[in-house]
Q: What sequence folds into this?
């Protein structure tokens, strides 16, 4: 485990970074030819930096491309363009054989623990599998699995049980133990707590925080829930329709979101506090997310943007024609992709 | 905006009662399901009163019996379910009514909104057809043109754009949020007195959830209906209800006004739920206090307080006597805990530890369940 702690504790040097990642999925015609008739623009130019022992949260609604981004960062799917830098190498250029040892360092935890654990394998076998695949089991694998079971807060006596004998929270802990088996440096957490009941969710969040401190892990935390994100993340990137619309440190973002989408998202999260809930300002977005196979020109959020409706015709034409880039020369502290970004305090 | 109480003349001359009359009264409701392993006692003595215009939130984790409670009231449980107690709608007993009688009440006086709109809508009919069906089944003398006009009004009132066109759309042509709004429109079609919403926004994204909850609130105001909102999301409860019922292992463990539940909880479980919730308005440094362990199996419930194995305050008496709902200060706030007095002014961190795991809790739960199984086996002999 010491190998992981050797990484420089320098935030300026990212452990893993994505550069201008683009992923388009082809839409094919029906029939035998299955010609390409269009493309779903799932991810359109996303750049992310994750530093050592840092948690970057990727927030957005379903279909905004956050899970695709996480898979691109692991090189599980090839990007249409862009690169992923890890250890000074571009992962997207590596062959399968070259990629194989790198996979140890970057592991994934899935949302649904029941669907991601083989029901016919015991917990011991599930956690030992990555070790066997990488040929590391012979070398003290048994002890390693036992210690992993303990690290994630399960009873080692239960190692011969099957996944169905555990509760949802315990199953998610098994998934985390499996991801930790190869001593990774980066964990991609794809909605790891959204399938769990609240009282159980808190235990898994605390476990993830403890593991990060003890093992020096970096997390990419994919979530739709800003309250969980505020709790666990150091940095936040908000995605809408394949693009990052706002990013900043957690404190900056929650102190004053500047992009109208972030503001709407934040005001839509219900607070478990009746008095605050009654007096809060509410921004309710109209309409639905446009189809990613035909995204709007210019600013992708303009079709639902409450700010856009208030602008004059001249200002609106800028939103329609010019795509806003992430910039920080507005009064807020974050980097926002809006021509008329304006800070607003919401919580 | 449309005015839903006019149009089709479908019996809307019914006087809308004053806010404050009791519309639904549930008393000592018990529901059990026989299974191969024995009787599962899913609901164990739920009582509440719902007044016109009031909204009641029912919170609890999965398996706490919150949905079964309302399914029993609506007569939607399978025939094998054993239901005792009483559920009165405007003084009329609902339990034990046959299907023809219940059908006159369902959808007209009490309507229900389910979690997944794609499974509660019929995929082979247009949404307009399904809306008109809801109206015409209760008011057969409404002709098709009138019903269609009212469908368009209803779709408009729940915030669906272009209702004239959407009325001919099939459910798969609409997005998740729109489908749920169609379900809400169907639920309010006959100006019901009670709307039961069972996890209405759980399957939706947060911005869509905000839209749907707004539509639901508006619908409720227009027809002055009472609402039962069943959810596991304490945030939704905080913003949309007046009264809250917290359920655990099939029983209400605390009941009170929304402010009492959130600011002065007197049952360790409620406190634990609040403490385990990550909050957007709280600093990152704050550590969550999880409730360790899992809810008990409803098959062999050990004697005593069902929350005892997970409760950091438990003492010997908790294993023997299951606490009744005890009044706290006469305002209607009740909590089922022997030590509720000690909880006055306590914060979640005072009671629960902020660690990630606690194996002793799980070991205890396992031991108590094993014991319960042994006990029932002895009973069988």
A:
């Amino acid at each position: 485990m010491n190998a992981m702690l050797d990484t420089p504790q320098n935030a300026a040097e990212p452990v893993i970074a994505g550069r201008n990642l683009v992923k388009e999925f082809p839409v094919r015609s029906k029939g035998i030819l299955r010609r390409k008739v269009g493309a779903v623009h799932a991810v359109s130019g996303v750049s992310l930096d994750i530093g050592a022992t840092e948690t970057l949260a990727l927030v957005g609604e379903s279909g905004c491309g956050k899970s695709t981004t996480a898979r691109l960062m692991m090189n599980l799917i090839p990007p249409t363009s862009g690169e992923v830098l890890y250890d000074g190498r571009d992962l997207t250029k590596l062959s399968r054989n070259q990629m194989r040892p790198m996979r140890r360092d970057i592991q994934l935890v899935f949302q649904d623990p029941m669907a991601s654990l083989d029901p016919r394998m015991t917990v011991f076998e599930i956690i030992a599998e990555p070790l066997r695949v990488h040929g590391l089991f012979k070398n003290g694998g048994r002890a390693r699995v036992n210690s992993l079971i303990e690290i994630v807060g399960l009873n080692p006596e239960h190692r011969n049980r099957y996944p169905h004998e555990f509760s949802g929270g315990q199953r998610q802990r098994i998934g985390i133990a499996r991801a930790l088996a190869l001593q990774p440096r980066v964990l991609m957490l794809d909605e790891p707590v959204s399938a769990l009941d609240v009282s159980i969710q808190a235990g898994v969040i605390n476990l993830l925080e403890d593991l990060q401190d003890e093992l020096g892990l970096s997390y990419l935390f994919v979530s739709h829930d800003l309250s969980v994100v505020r709790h666990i993340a150091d940095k936040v990137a908000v995605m809408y329709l394949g693009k990052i619309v706002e990013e900043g440190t957690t404190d900056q973002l929650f102190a004053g979101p500047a992009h109208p989408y972030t503001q709407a998202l934040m005001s839509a999260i219900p607070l478990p506090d009746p008095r605050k809930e009654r007096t809060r300002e509410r921004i309710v977005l109209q309409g639905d997310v446009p189809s990613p196979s035909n995204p709007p020109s210019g600013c992708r959020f303009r079709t639902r943007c409450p700010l856009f409706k208030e602008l004059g015709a001249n200002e609106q034409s800028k939103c329609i024609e010019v795509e806003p880039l992430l910039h920080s020369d507005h009064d807020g502290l974050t980097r926002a992709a809006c021509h008329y970004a304006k800070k607003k305090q919401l919580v | 905006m449309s005015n839903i109480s006019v149009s089709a003349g479908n019996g809307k001359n019914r006087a809308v009662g004053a806010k404050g009359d009791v519309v639904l009264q549930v008393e000592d409701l018990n529901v059990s399901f026989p299974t191969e392993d024995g009787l599962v006692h899913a609901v164990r003595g739920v009582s509440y009163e719902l007044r016109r215009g009031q909204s009641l939130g029912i919170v609890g984790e999965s398996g706490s019996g919150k949905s079964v409670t309302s399914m029993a009231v609506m007569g939607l449980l399978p025939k094998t379910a054993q239901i005792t107690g009483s559920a009165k709608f405007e003084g009329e007993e609902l339990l034990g009514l046959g299907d023809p009688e219940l059908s006159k009440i369902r959808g007209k006086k009490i309507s229900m909104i389910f979690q997944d709109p794609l499974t509660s809508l019929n995929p082979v009919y247009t949404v307009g057809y399904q809306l008109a069906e809801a109206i015409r089944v209760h008011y057969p003398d409404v002709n098709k043109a009138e019903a269609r006009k009212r469908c368009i009004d209803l779709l408009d009132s729940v915030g669906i754009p272009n209702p004239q066109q959407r009325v001919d759309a099939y459910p798969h042509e609409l997005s998740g949020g729109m489908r749920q709004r169609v379900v809400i429109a169907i639920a309010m079609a006959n100006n019901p007195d009670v709307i039961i919403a069972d996890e209405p926004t759980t399957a939706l994204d947060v911005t869509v959830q905000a839209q749907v909850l707004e539509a639901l609130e508006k619908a409720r105001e227009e027809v002055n209906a009472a609402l039962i909102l069943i959810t596991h999301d304490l945030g939704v409860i905080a913003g949309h209800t007046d009264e809250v019922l917290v359920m655990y292992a099939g029983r209400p463990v605390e009941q009170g006004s929304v402010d009492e539940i959130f600011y002065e909880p007197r049952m360790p479980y409620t406190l634990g739920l609040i403490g385990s919730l990550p909050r957007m308005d709280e600093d990152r440094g704050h550590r969550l206090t999880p409730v360790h362990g899992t809810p008990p199996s409803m098959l062999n419930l050990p004697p005593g307080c069902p929350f005892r194995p997970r409760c950091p305050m438990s003492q010997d008496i908790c294993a023997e006597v299951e606490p009744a709902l005890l009044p706290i200060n006469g305002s209607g706030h009740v909590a089922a805990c022997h030590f509720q007095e000690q909880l006055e002014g306590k914060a979640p961190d005072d009671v629960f530890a902020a660690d990630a795991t606690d194996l002793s809790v799980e070991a205890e739960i396992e031991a108590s369940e094993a014991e319960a199984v042994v006990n029932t086996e002895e009973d069988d002999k």
In short: Chain B touches chain A through 53 residues (CB under 8 Å). The first helix of chain B runs from residue 66 to 74. Chain B has two domains: 22-232, 262-380. Residues 262-380 of chain B form one domain.
